[in-house]
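All the exercises in this workshop are built on plain-text protein records. The record below serves as our worked example for the rest of this section.
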Amino acid sequence: NTFTRTGYTFLGWSTDPETTSATYTNGQSVSNLTSEDGGVVNLYAVWKINTYTVSVVVNNGTTSPATRTVNYNTNATFTLNPNTGYESPTVSCTNSQKASISGTTLTISNVTSNTTCTVTYKPTTYTITYNLGGGSVTGNPSSYTVESNAITLKNPSKTGYTFTGWTGSNGSTAQTTVTIPKGSTGNKSYTANYRANTYEVKYNSNGGSGTMSNSSHTYGVSKALSSNTFTRTGYTFLGWSTDPE
């Protein structure tokens, strides 16, 4: 046989044009074609459609099945199962085979050879937002992925206040140490909590006499100083100063 048929393999000859690869016996001979002098006998080539193996390798996920056998010029479909925290897959196949992904379905179109396709999922990027409540901090990231190393938040500072901890994605109880472990997923949000500093004012008679109790004051809260009860002979009290001179 010198005939060729793309996508098919020649099995042999048959005198019956309806013979198929399913009804053909491999290696059968064609004999006693005719006893008529000068007779014409038509022989029909029997073809079997080629089958090809399509394999799929998934980075950051799995597929079912992993391998499929299909006939020449037909499609092979696979169901993809990405791991949590991954999205936006890309696919490339050997032999320049065309492939596409729709949702979780991978389709390799019009297969014409044994093919291996590789699907790669990239990590999903999640956001980290902060409500600093008037404070400031540097070095905290604004995003992360499931592949990021563990992130321990840096704590903010705020003039006149003491940081008491973060609340939000870590829970409603303020924590001064918050870590996002490697392998975490989902957007995160954190709120900084503070306590206003309190200060003790000590009163010095600065040459006068008498005693006065200390007074307590809170940052940012207006509060009058204690009334002077010191006395100094020959002097009139003018007011308070933080400078003894």
